[in-house]
Amino acid sequence: MNVVAPFEGIGASVRRKEDLRFLSGRGQYTDDIARPGQAHACILRSPHAHARILKLDAAAARAMPGVVAIYTGEDTKGLGGIPCGWQLHNKDGSPMAEPRHPVIAEGKARHVGDPVAVVVAETRTQAKDAAEAIEVEYEVLPALSTMKEALAPGAAQLHDAAPGNLCYDWHIGDKAATDAAFARAHKVVRFETTNNRLVPNAMEPRAAIGDYDPTTGEHTLWTTSQNPHVIRLLMGAFVLNIPESRLRVVAPDVGGGFGSKIYHYAEEAIVTWAASKLNRPVKWTCDRSEAFISDAHGRDHVTTCELALDETGKFLGLRVDTLANMGAYLSTFAPCVPTYLYATLLSGVYSLPTIYAEVKAVFTSTVAVDAYRGAGRPEATYLLERLVDVAAAETGMDRVEIRRRNFIATDAFPYQTPVALQYDSGDYFSTLDAALETAGWAGFEARRAEAAKEGKLRGIGISTYVEACGIAPSAVVGSLGARAGLYEVGTIRVHPTGSVTVLTGAHSHGQGHETTFAQLVADRLGVPLSQVDVVHGDTAKVPFGMGTYGSRSLAVGGSAMVKAMDKVVDKAKKIAAHLLEASVQDIEFDRGTFRVAGTDRTKALAEVSLAAYVPHNYPIEELEPGLEETAFYDPKNFTYPGGCHICEVEIERDTGKVSVVNFTAVDDVGRVINPMIVEGQVQGGVAQGIGQALMEQAVYDESGQLLSGSMMDYSLPRAEDLPMVSVANHVTLCTHNPLGVKGCGEVGAIGSPPAVMNAVVDALREFGVRHVEMPATPAKIWNIINAGAQRMAAE
Amino acid sequence: MYDFDYHKPSSVADAVKLLSADPDARAISGGQTLLPALKHRLNRPTYLVDLSGIAELRGVKREGDKITVGAMTRHIEVQNSPEVKSAIPALAYMATVIGDIQVRNRGTMGGSVANNDPAADYPSAVLGLGATVVTDKRRIAADDYFQGMFTTALEPGELLVAIEFPIPEKAGYAKMRNPASRYVMAGVFVAKTKDGVRVVVNGAGPGVFRQTDMEQALSANWSPDAVAGIKQASEGLNSDIHGSAEYRAHLVSVMAKRAVTDAG
Ligand SMILES: Cc1cc2nc3c(=O)[nH]c(=O)nc-3n(C[C@H](O)[C@H](O)[C@H](O)COP(=O)(O)OP(=O)(O)OC[C@H]3O[C@@H](n4cnc5c(N)ncnc54)[C@H](O)[C@@H]3O)c2cc1C
């Protein structure tokens, strides 16, 4: 009988290998782990945005039942500060301000939520009880809730090492050429906007367990991280001074990250350090409310920009001036987000001859701000795509036509932008055409008229975008201030009977890597998916790795696996040649079978791997036994996914409520390994993008309290708020990685917000609205409608 | 959560005894409001008196021209009750728009009405239908029961046992959800009863209140247009990051119109 195995390789929508575990509640998350004898930590956090700690009295707390230890900044001041992974330079070449970020506040708290003391007790409740009994006397200092306040002359100083609360004053592009372009412009369009601050809200709150073995001196940290090796490096080398050989970091199942679990957080250092002081495991699990004031937030830009156009609507130049909120301390990636992940994307999908962008990063008395799904690229895309719509309105051009006229030509790749990046491939015309077709753009006016009959305002919006991901070439990012390389590591271990274990430095926290990566192996080595296992997230198992963020896992991590598989196949061919008594040059390999070219003499991979581990008949003189290879892959360039998103909204006139009624995403993410997983990634990203556009906003009051500090006040989108997103792909291959893949994790969150907001503005056009800031809440939209109606009545 | 003791009586009498024995004891019914408060350490009861074991507090009964809902009746039971659906469809509908399915499976009418959250749904129906709140000691008319934000006529240790709703000629409800919590930003319950028309506003102010201008307008002319033009004053209404008092005042007119449409 001829059994045809189901195709499980590249391009197959196979079900996710991890789903059985997750859907049946058998995932193992950090909080599920209980170490024998573990104690529990509770962090006492500052209730004030900015305050001097005059006195801290823990005597009563120490006497409470179950208390094991109480630590303050006095105890941890000898430790290193939490390090920042990027160093930016100012316009004048001097390095950015990089104030110390203490593990526990030293004399001063700088945001609501800043750790002030740590209680370790037998139970979590006892730790919380004791934390409440600690008496802290604060001298409340002026809060710096907004960047404007922080930059005002005479403002209070958050850090002595950051005069004027300025972290850096940076620029990119050619100022003189840009000024010249504006001088000869036919029309200049100006636009100001705020990119709203977001709270990531991964489903699993952060958690960490420190453990210490005094007999070996080995420290172990279990943590909710997207990149355990990076945590080992940052915490071991900079904070706790522990050599890698004595520090194991495990990131087991992790329930979502969206960037917020990239960074090295104080709590990780606290539990690791406390465990070794106390000689027992110490566990900390974040509450949801605590997460709001301790997880790094995202976005938070205030920008002014100007676009110069000629008579025909061609773009001549772009000027951008951005303030970027860093929060109170520099989180791991924070400085690079509004610079190298933002300003370098300001050319978008357009042929823009010259760009000049200035970015000031500002310290405020708020939680740290860092990368959040898309990181910098959503901010750039939003700015540009709103600006282009404003330009279309003000020049009387059609919104689609102005884009087409300025797109980078499909034959212009590789395309060098004026802001450092070189796009390798793309086809913006095709993604646009496909999206217009799918979204029924041409028939929209009929739908608008239909909605109007029911008293609803209907609008349609478009966004055409490109992003840079698959980060990143180490030498390039090194020259830009990264303090680490951004390659990835993959090991292919072919076992004696031909099953395969893949070790990867990438980390899966919802992306389905265990499936996608296994498909790469199935495709190349011909091993059934059921016999391929992917191991990740443990520094003791995986040689090294830089982790998962910036849609890099497949483009960089997958490429490392391909390289390792090449090495495996090279070696296996030699073994097969020996077994088949042929010359290596004559051996062909295709999906699991080695063949002497032009003959029917074959050996299966399992036969070759068995020979490799049982080398009785083996070229032992020339070849080591075993069949396992490791590769480090350093990408040659970023990858550049792009595409077109079209959104259709309906607005209730009397309440201002905006509903997304249609959403079309046509993305070019390069080669697609598992279409089902890609579709899920795009839908999730679009959901977050719609959340940013319509609902989400972190709001601080003047005293620095987070008003939207829980789900009661922070609006997250729910299933009922989201349309069925139509997802399609138009593929151009990445030209510089072996898989031709680009990355799909962030495109949804990058492309969608401006499509939604362009639709909202379009729906409100009868009221003469030029721009609406995110989020477009019902109250905000009703105010616009109401004011517009009153103005029209008066006219 | 602070430590507390736990009791699960099986009669109203035992529950009342437990509750009156200690001023810091608290009743717990669905726990959908109390448990989050305990978890946030906003409350420190000595012990909880779990009402879920008291059979006499559960269920919906139709007797003559009134519907009686036991305090422990869960939102999901109100939503699915054939009696409620046929006699007061607006009340059954209201239950469907409270929270989410998990909340509706746990939360109870008694808990909601005892708590009197200004953004809750049920208080508007209780006041809007001129219902009677029955406790272990007495019967309280809805007009006397609600006393502003989280405040009711219930005395310490007094147990809400049931709510009696007179069956109206018609009633309707419309709610604008708070975009974050999905509680009520502004809602209006309207009812045409044998004692006259009642219009009650929830969510918009510090507690439920009757909108008398709208009551008069609807008494004269029961139609959506009759209320659409009536403006609610914004003074004293809630204002927060989700919407100003003016916005909420405006929503009152919109919701009133929808509620009348809903009532038919
Ligand atoms: C996510 C979420 C969303 C929600 N959304 C909504 C919404 O949209 N609309 C809405 O109206 N509500 C909403 N709620 C609240 C929900 O309806 C609760 O069920 C309700 O407020 C309280 O009912 P409970 O039975 O859970 O009471 P509990 O939480 O058990 O008790 C609440 C209070 O009432 C007291 N109490 C309880 N029963 C009695 C009694 N018989 N006699 C005297 N005192 C008593 C308790 O001591 C406590 O102080 C939401 C809750 C959650 C968690």
Automatic annotation (TrEMBL), chain B:
<keyword id="KW-0285">Flavoprotein</keyword>
<dbReference type="InterPro" id="IPR005107">
    <property type="entry name" value="CO_DH_flav_C"/>
</dbReference>
<dbReference type="InterPro" id="IPR002346">
    <property type="entry name" value="Mopterin_DH_FAD-bd"/>
</dbReference>
<dbReference type="InterPro" id="IPR036318">
    <property type="entry name" value="FAD-bd_PCMH-like_sf"/>
</dbReference>
<keyword id="KW-0274">FAD</keyword>
<dbReference type="GO" id="GO:0071949">
    <property type="term" value="F:FAD binding"/>
</dbReference>
<dbReference type="InterPro" id="IPR016167">
    <property type="entry name" value="FAD-bd_PCMH_sub1"/>
</dbReference>
<dbReference type="Pfam" id="PF03450">
    <property type="entry name" value="CO_deh_flav_C"/>
</dbReference>
<dbReference type="Pfam" id="PF00941">
    <property type="entry name" value="FAD_binding_5"/>
</dbReference>
<protein>
    <submittedName>
        <fullName>Aerobic carbon monoxide dehydrogenase (Quinone), medium chain</fullName>
        <ecNumber>1.2.5.3</ecNumber>
    </submittedName>
</protein>
<dbReference type="InterPro" id="IPR016166">
    <property type="entry name" value="FAD-bd_PCMH"/>
</dbReference>
<dbReference type="GO" id="GO:0008805">
    <property type="term" value="F:carbon-monoxide oxygenase activity"/>
</dbReference>
<dbReference type="InterPro" id="IPR036683">
    <property type="entry name" value="CO_DH_flav_C_dom_sf"/>
</dbReference>
<dbReference type="InterPro" id="IPR051312">
    <property type="entry name" value="Diverse_Substr_Oxidored"/>
</dbReference>
<keyword id="KW-0560">Oxidoreductase</keyword>
<dbReference type="InterPro" id="IPR016169">
    <property type="entry name" value="FAD-bd_PCMH_sub2"/>
</dbReference>
<feature type="domain" description="FAD-binding PCMH-type">
    <location>
        <begin position="1"/>
        <end position="170"/>
    </location>
</feature>
